[in-house]
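Q: What structure does this chain adopt?
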Amino acid sequence: MTDERMERVPTPADDAAIRIENLVVDYGRKRAVDGLDMVVPRGVVYGFLGPNGAGKTSTIKTLMGFRRPDGGRARVLGYDVVEESLEVRARVGFASEVNSLYEGMTVPRICRLCRDLSRSWDQALVDRYISIFGLPENAKIRKLSKGQKAQLQLCLALGSNPELLILDEPTSGLDPVARRAFLKVLVGEVAAEGRTVFFSTHLLSDIEAVADTVGIIKGGKLLASGDLDEMRGSHRVFRAVYAETPPEEEVRRLRSLPDVREVEREGRGIKLQVRGDVEAVERGLRDRPYPVVDLDSTGMSLEDIFVAYVEDGNGR
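A:
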């Protein structure tokens, strides 16, 4: 039974779960987040992807009100993260790779503590997720494995029926079985209910398993963002095999085609990495002054796309 102890302030009208504008976060002389602009639509599972030190955790700390921004602004569910941080935290479930649980408490005791600190609490829902994960109901938290602690954090994050779930590297260091169980709940239970999930990680396999929308960040800047399937569709590798070894003039021509990011020779062939209008590039390849005997293209994996953006260092 849900325990409603305080009437919630109506959520401001906003079509975005998260809206970030020119966000800056500094730590001394180091700029962790550098003019970040990003929009996370409601109802999606958004994979926030980047190498270690890219600014993912600093962004999340700012969204949760744990860190005041040094510039720009951010809104979560329509609420300003600085001026209305209490409203943000009341509506957001949060879990991270850092174990913030009280080790000496039992599972029921940590549930009661979270209930007392929440505006609303649904213990029946928490018990259901605890059962799904098979967590020992009366064990002390120090006795739980790392995977079980991560699963418990997710159960507690869901206890207040949040509109938005923010997860910061929650599966980092978990064994494959624990990770699979964690992600299965995210997809089969949480996302299926229409909740928005903002999922930060550097593990590409986790993104592919749960996300439908992806953002790639490096150096505190957003390099790319969009629907994962559309992103895959706009990133392809073409291979053109010529009747004779193509001259350097042909290589230069291909490099000048719109949205061609990389050109490599492969014997009598040339490989092109494309980001953008792949059909226009294909037309440019077929409109060729040198005879091509074979032309094919393959989609790029998320790993290839990620590496291309990170190595390039900027997006379009």
